[in-house]
Design a protein that fits this description.
Layout lengths: L1 E3 L12 E7 L9 E6 L2 H12 L3 E6 L18 E13 L3 E19 L4 E7 L8 H20 L5 H7 L5 H11 L4 H8 L4 H35 L1 H17 L3 H14 L4 H16 L5 H15 L12 H11 L4 H16 L7 E5 L6 H12 L3 E5 L7 H4 L12 H9 L5 E5 L12 H8 L8 E2 L6 E2 L5 E6 L7 H5 L2 E4 L5 H20 L6 E3 L1 H11 L6 H21 L3 E3 L4 H5 L17 E8 L2 E13 L4 E4 L4 H16 L9 H5 E6 L13 H13 L7 E3 L2 E2 L5 E2 L4 H10 L4 E5 L6 H4 L7 E5 L2 H8 L6
Parallel strand pairs: 2-4, 8-13, 8-14, 9-10, 10-13, 15-16, 19-20, 21-24, 24-25
Antiparallel strand pairs: 1-5, 2-7, 3-6, 4-5, 5-6, 6-7, 11-12, 17-18, 18-20, 22-23
Helix pairs in contact: 2-3, 2-6, 4-6, 5-6, 8-9, 9-10, 11-12, 11-13, 18-19, 18-20, 22-24
Length: 781
Amino acid sequence: MEINLTQDNSLDAIPKVIPVVPTVNVTVFPNMIMPLLVLDERIMNGIQEAVESSKYILLLSARESSQEGQEIDTDNLYSIGTVASVMRVINVPDDGIKVLVQGVYRAQVQDLMVRDDMLLAQIDLINFNATVSDATQALINNIKEVAEQLSISSQTITPDFYAILSKMNDPEKIAEFVLSHLEIKSHPSQMLLECRNVDDLLRGIYEELSKEISISQVQERIRTHTRESINKSQHEYYLREQLKAIKKELGEDLVDEIEDLKASLAAKNIPEKTKKEIEKQIDKLERISPESMEATVTRSHVELLLSLPWGVYTKDSLNLQHAKTVLDKDHYGLMDVKDRILDFISIKNLKADGPSPILCLYGPPGVGKTSLGQSIAKSLGRNFYRISLGGVKDESEIRGHRRTYVGAMPGRVIHAMKKANSMNPVILIDEIDKLGADFRGDPSAALLEVLDPNQNKEFYDNYLGMPFDLSSVMFIVTCNDISAISGPLLDRMEVIQLSGYTFEEKQQIAKKYLIKQAVDQSGMKESNIHIAQSALDTIIAEYTREAGVRHLSQLIKKLCGKAARSFVETGEVIKITKKNIEKHLGYKKYPAERIDQKNMIGITNGLAWTSVGGVVMKIESALMPGTGKLILTGQLGDVMKESAQAALSYARSHAAEFKIAHERFTAFDLHIHLPAGAVPKDGPSAGLALLSSILSSYTGRLVNASLAMTGELNLRGDVMPIGGVKEKVLAAKQHNLSMVILPEENRGELSSIEGILEDMKIVWVSHADEALEHILLPLVD
């Protein structure tokens, strides 16, 4: 339905109380015609009331906080509005009406009356002063000048706008025309409506036109700059656009990649601070060109961050019996390490967030340090990763490279966390004593933070550029020579020594592990080869001379290879016995009784520790006419040279006790030599053996060759403690020596060697005189 209305717009025809129609983002001025859509029932009632009576309504603008479609709060309406006449009413769908109104007069609201059925206002009409003065004419000229500029530069004002405006002279009509063409915000528009004279109104319009000029000029500068940029790199732009289209067709659109990164970030349990940093990197990737080098670097960085196992923890297996079974199944002996792991599991049972130990396993090669790390991870139910640091010299291998470098990558620790795929894995740092240092830094210094439980909670990798939590990781470090590790780094670790295996332990390891492993790797069955016990004993005693079992494993694999060849060629099962062992393995490298046990003057059996186990070291001395000089050969280190000098000083100071004439010390030169002259030798533990050799040469007494000795000696003759007791005793047993002389202060280590004392005698001494009673044989008349 459509209603057309005509009415008298005289002042007397406007009632004092009329219905109110609120407007949002629209300000209607006098003489302006405007369509309005009304959906509110109370407002429609007011319009219906106006249609049936005076045909007048009051249009009040709402402040900018109001939004179209929401119910308007009467407190949010301006107090000055426009009285408008209702020209036409049209019903529209959804129970609304469309009203065409024309502004008539400005009016001030004296009282706003809110009824249940409609909104009314008591008003006073505002007298608008339309007197024209010289200032008015000047403002009109300024408006026309600005309008001319706008018609040239603005995209919103057409040239027709200025053509029409230039022919108008009536200030009110000029104001009405400009206001109907300008898009002015609600508040400035309301300020113009509240103007009480034509000069203020024109002045306000001039300011709005000036703002429009400024905006137009900025837009033009932006358009010009953009146009120049496009012209400058037009070829590159078109190529990139084509590449984007091609990638989109191939399903390689960067937008999809960004969305995948965001989805992956949202799915991970990442700390909030780190998460915000990753979000910044993704936003940066979204802004830069996909083909730029920076995009490649940023994408690689974000992908690495999202590939780390943030918040991923494996559940620890806290069953002590299960852990003990796994450890015993994989390794024979090594009770110290196994007990420490069981202690750790016990603590975890009582305190779930207890700290993880940082263990340092040191000992000779082949004793199972590396494989023990895997067994520990299996017993705990944790993921495992091994880092080999042998020969690493660059600090960046640990801390990573800065992303500004070409080919930058994270350090080995972060790489290990990525591969382990959990926050609490077992990480084995292998061969830490083989680290080097050069102009690129010291990697062992970088490990100080990694292996410190108080610092690694926020380990900083240069490539990541943010802290990473390593506090839940169980680090296991292995080395052969603990003296090669720096003091501060060693202080952060719990050191556990893995000594060499005894003959009996090697037998058990070969039976339980090595033979089965070699048979499986050769593709045969255990029934295809038979290795007699006597043959196995011969291999251990006469073909290997090592602390571990690596060489023994290689020889057993060699035998399995021989058996596999025989089985393939002839179908026969070969038997390996003590009699035919040389046929398969060649001559014996360490035949029994290789150490000469003939009693001689000046030759003693010393015991030494090396990184591959204990060794029996011959010490030789001889006198020759001279002037009393001391000659030392055999690549001796400074400490061993000093030990030789101290032993000689003790012998000279106690010459009377040993019935040595003082003239012998000045009439003869003393030459001390340690065979294997190409091998460097050092350490203080040869002091007792050196003294025995020196006294034997000066007294002419034979040395008991069936025993070996070790111990540091001072000038008073006290025998001081030494290290590597088990390895040294093992070396003596391997050479079939029946007696070993050890310092009394090492008696506390008796428990570690009890298993190898069969057919051996240990003599504990605290002074050189006690040892010499066993070492130097009486003179024979």
